[in-house]
Amino acid sequence: MFQNFTTTARPDLGATRLAELRQELRAEGLDGFIVPRADAHQGEYVAPRDDRLAWLTGFTGSAGFCVVLADKAGVFIDGRYRTQVKHQVDLAHFTPVPWPDVTLGKWIAENCKGTIGFDPWLHTHAEITAMRAAGVTLKPVKNLVDRIWADQPAPPAGAVFLQPDELAGKTSAEKRAEVGASLAAEVAILTLPDSICWLLNIRGTDVARNPVTHAFALLHRDGKVDLFADAAKYSDDVLAALGPDVRLHPVAELESAVRGLSGPVQLDAASAPVALRLMLIENVKIVEADDPCRLPKALKTEAEITGAREAHLRDGAAMVEFLAWLDETAPKGGLTEIDVVTKLENFRRATNALREISFETICGSGPNGAMMHYRVTEDSNRAIGMDELLLVDSGGQYVDGTTDITRTIAIGDPGDEARNCYTRVLQGLIALTRARWPVGLSGRDLDPLARFPLWLDGRDFNHGTGHGVGAFLSVHEGPQRIARISEVPLEAGMILSNEPGYYREGAFGIRLENLMVTEKAPRITDDRDQLCFDTITFVPFDLRLVLVDALSRDERDWLNAYHAKVVELLLPRISKKAAAWLHSATRAI
Amino acid sequence: MFQNFTTTARPDLGATRLAELRQELRAEGLDGFIVPRADAHQGEYVAPRDDRLAWLTGFTGSAGFCVVLADKAGVFIDGRYRTQVKHQVDLAHFTPVPWPDVTLGKWIAENCKGTIGFDPWLHTHAEITAMRAAGVTLKPVKNLVDRIWADQPAPPAGAVFLQPDELAGKTSAEKRAEVGASLAAEVAILTLPDSICWLLNIRGTDVARNPVTHAFALLHRDGKVDLFADAAKYSDDVLAALGPDVRLHPVAELESAVRGLSGPVQLDAASAPVALRLMLIENVKIVEADDPCRLPKALKTEAEITGAREAHLRDGAAMVEFLAWLDETAPKGGLTEIDVVTKLENFRRATNALREISFETICGSGPNGAMMHYRVTEDSNRAIGMDELLLVDSGGQYVDGTTDITRTIAIGDPGDEARNCYTRVLQGLIALTRARWPVGLSGRDLDPLARFPLWLDGRDFNHGTGHGVGAFLSVHEGPQRIARISEVPLEAGMILSNEPGYYREGAFGIRLENLMVTEKAPRITDDRDQLCFDTITFVPFDLRLVLVDALSRDERDWLNAYHAKVVELLLPRISKKAAAWLHSATRAI
């Protein structure tokens, strides 16, 4: 079982650890210290060693900061975690701060005039610049938490393995030559694990959920790479495949290598740790630019798209087995959210191809569904009741692709308001799925299409409509998104999620999610070049929640055709029992 | 008759005038001079005296520049005028330049290394800054065209009249106090005629189409105004109404007044002439900000909205008389575009309330409809044929409101492609009309809704979807728009056009346009604050062009309800003959 439901954080020790940290503050002559939920690679998942925020405060969310001052300790949490934080930290010693409504810079400037320490490996230039602009005096120091964390785990040492060229669709040498030639400087410093893994056609197991390995790299204009990583992770086979143009060095040599750079250096202010910037000698020209692998990584090769399609059919078959089981079992009563998560993971494991789950399954029944990023634990686990909605957002990591799918299921009869909202969310998903648009538009330009049916009923949802998805990499990747804040033009080959939702606090949550590949649209008129989406997720929507009369003919036609395709593609892959369920679940409407 | 169809420009004299201008260049020691289609107030319409571009080149479009060099004269025209310019200028002496694809700065820098003269009254700071950034050496000089234009008309001297407080909904004193208090500086320099007219509740007749008077003003933080304008335009009654807090000065005193400013001065780099900037003494702090009247002017008062509704019913009745006449007359043959424009203006004049037309009526039959901004002249006038589309975009200036409406009409049977396109344009208009959206979004966020039905068929249109409209002021006003480039949040009280279209070059053009008021939306759920539109244009759409089966039920319901309201509101205002036509034209579908 990949997912677990226990919390190892010790909020009861928060006060003691805080007191120890304050002792270090005084010893260091500092007035405060920042503890982010981040590692040097700014990933969504961190190794246990880097989970300093949870260790100190008890808060286990996937983003946040603790700012420890002499007399106050603010825990900065975003909208997803406003409730959770209150249950996880000792409120006598930690003060939750609504972030980013209140920025770190503003809060610190208001609460402390002194000098605040920070670990330069755990913060980006953009973060530090913003705090300085707000008037905060900052000083880079060795991490204070690491000094007091007696049994801090060792850095991860997961083995590196190769991503076969046939699945990647391009050799590492080709990628290195192309990205090297595209640089705006002589050399780029790479710090993002998924960028490095993509570039070198390797994968790893250093953190949960994301099959990446931790490393730093210098990519030179000629396509050669200096890789800084623990040699123990690299087998001879992997080194042989990487070849002589990828030179492996100990991480300890990174500093001298960076100090030795003289030509213009490309650095991403939004992701590279400040520590690297501090190493660059004076007068070296820094070219601020996005990580150069981000966009090419997002433009999937034919082989990656073929792989993603296969992974989604495999995953879709597991989902159908799961939904058939759920429909048979849930109405009998007695199921909990943890039971559902466990069963779903087992169906995925039964494919014998699951390498990891893409993220902790979100399984929210009734009011828990309204918490957009709810992760069930033993403490929160809830029995699934009758006449409720059940929201299940999950995915699998397979060597040929990463999946991410959300379905919302009726357990009994959840009532007319739920059906109205479900139907509008589905209409939004269909509108975005069917969209065709002139080349050059960004996700921002398409985002309203998915919201319009909800807007018409006075509703909306507080998250983006879609995110990029990796190829056996991170389930969330950029640069493209479908969201109000995304100005990145969409291009053929990008994989995106399409996941409108609706959440009524204390009552229910609805989200529906398919993944789609962006493609050149076939010409209808001689008018102009267009793009469109091709859906690669094939799993039925719950027709018991669809108000058929509210659909337009086009929407009904789309849904019937989609369900026909689900049957056609999945029937050869599922059990007899699931097949019977599938036929009934996909009846024409 | 307001509109006229003759062109007074003399392209045959272009070569002679160009030679004279080049003599001035040499005398002045310059290597070039820029002739914009602009006056000191950056209005869409200029007085005959300021029509220097047309006088010099023969080009009569509403935007453009001529850059005269020693051996070349580039005429910069945007996408609307690429064809027209070729017919209007002497191509042996003038070279059309596709603008803004090619910027002035880039073209000049490539064609001339010397010094280019410009009239600082006719260019904004933003324009000059962009050219300098491109490497052009610029020098402000007295206008060279004015030196050689022997019979240049005198500046306009139209009388100023009052806009009654009952129609404005707010006294000038209230507006001046509010806007004065909102300033980011001690004083703002106002140069936009519609801003000054709005602020002082006055109107004028200095240019065609826009009922404004030319003036400059200093608005002080205490709400007092120094107004610089020709005193002959102001009757004693007007001066008495303006009161002692509006101090009228001769325009000749503007320079010394600006030179006398010492405190921070608010100036709009996008609209104020550079000349004013050059007058400010050194060390005066310039606060760059939008013209401070733009946003409050866009937020219409209750009285202005009531006035706009009445103006639109009056105008709608004239439009219905026109459409009834057209349906009876056009199929008999023999009508030309000029006949149609003339007849329509006469129907508007018959209201006895028409003060001006809002702009030159665009009346394009068949392929002429595909030219988005086509203005018929005696040269281009075309007989309206059978089985064609006729696009008519027009509006009236009434003291209670400014109208702007487009309808596309079937003359005979224009065929299935036309009907398909018309239906999709109508679906876009309906989608935008019905939109409700969370407070805070801009026109950019709504723009895709109007395009989606066209996108689905591989089509789109190359103009914005909507613009702001004045209250007996300019038919195009900011700051809000519905367009990809508009980031201004929409607010209750804004009037906007909703005008999707589709154009097939050489074949036909379709555009449908209603005006709408932005309103607080009634709550449906307790979810969140929303805005919506209330349509104020009431004129039937041509049902002969609607593919009824392609409409969703919601779209059909909307169209039937709209037509029922047209009948209800206009029936008391139209002739018996038009009433019979209206009943048939609005039959339920």
Descriptors:
homodimer; 33% helix; six-stranded mixed sheet; 589 residues; Creatine Amidinohydrolase, Chain A, domain 1; Creatine Amidinohydrolase; alpha+beta; 28 strands
What do you see in this structure?
The structure is a homodimer of 589-residue chains. The first copy, chain A, has 3 domains: 11-148, Creatine Amidinohydrolase, Chain A, domain 1 (3-Layer(aba) Sandwich), CATH 3.40.350; 161-297, Creatinase/prolidase N-terminal domain (Creatine Amidinohydrolase, Chain A, domain 1), CATH 3.40.350; 299-516, Creatinase/methionine aminopeptidase superfamily (Creatine Amidinohydrolase). In chain A, helix 4 crosses helix 5 and helix 14 crosses helix 19. In chain A, helix 3 (84-88) links the parallel strand 3 (73-77) and strand 4. In chain A, 33% of the residues lie in helices and 20% in strands. The first copy, chain A, has 589 residues and is an alpha+beta fold. At the A-B interface, strand 21 and helix 17 of A face strand 21 and helix 17 of B.
Short description:
Two copies of one chain form a homodimer. Chain A is an alpha+beta fold and 589 residues long.
